Amino acid sequence: MESMVTFALIFLVIFAMNVAPAFAPPTWTVLSYVAVRYQSNVIVLATVGAAAATLGRVVLARLSTKLIRGKLLNEKTRANVDTIRTQIEGRKKLTAGLLLFYAFSPLPSNHVFIAYGLTAMDLRIIAAPFFIGRLASYSFWALTSSTVVEWAGLGRARQGFFFGFYFILGQALTLVTVYVFAKIDWRVLLGEKRIRWLK
Fold first, then answer.
1. Number of structural domains, the chain?
2. Cβ(110)–Cβ(78) under 8 Å?
């Protein structure tokens, strides 16, 4: 399980999963399974997974910029999203810090990178903190997830149910978050501190 070919294959699988905008299993569950099933080196596995996930999410954000912002959003919606861009550009350290905090969690990140891609901003602001956070979280989950499943008394069927529920919840969250991000009138929210839908 420690061969370069095997880790290269894991890298490609994780990369493809993170380019997918939705309906891909959570990366931490895949890495946890590999770590437990094959007794893999957790640090190397987490590093490969974090690098592949980061590269995949960067590509997803770029595709979001090119396809969704460039092809699907009208001028009014693009101008609305650019209001967020102006705010983020003035708070790069805060943005990086928030993403680092988020990346420590097992929460799905596809909606974060799709939304960020809609702003067409420099992805270096969020790529490095995302890698660091995911490296830490993947290491943690690879080491502890099997223990938690056993402690909770989950057999194989119940474990599949648990991961299936997480998967469905994550995809629903992605769709709702991206829709809300694009439809909120950010000028009104940031300027007048009230929520209004973009018409």
1. 1
2. no
In a domain, 197, yes or no: no
pLDDT (tens digit per residue) in 78-128? 888 888 888 888 888 888 988 888 898 877 888 889 989 998 888 989 999
Domain membership of residue 11 (yes or no) is yes
Say if 87 falls within a structural domain: yes
Q: Within a domain: residue 99?
A: yes
Q: State the residue range of the domain holding 17.
A: 4-192
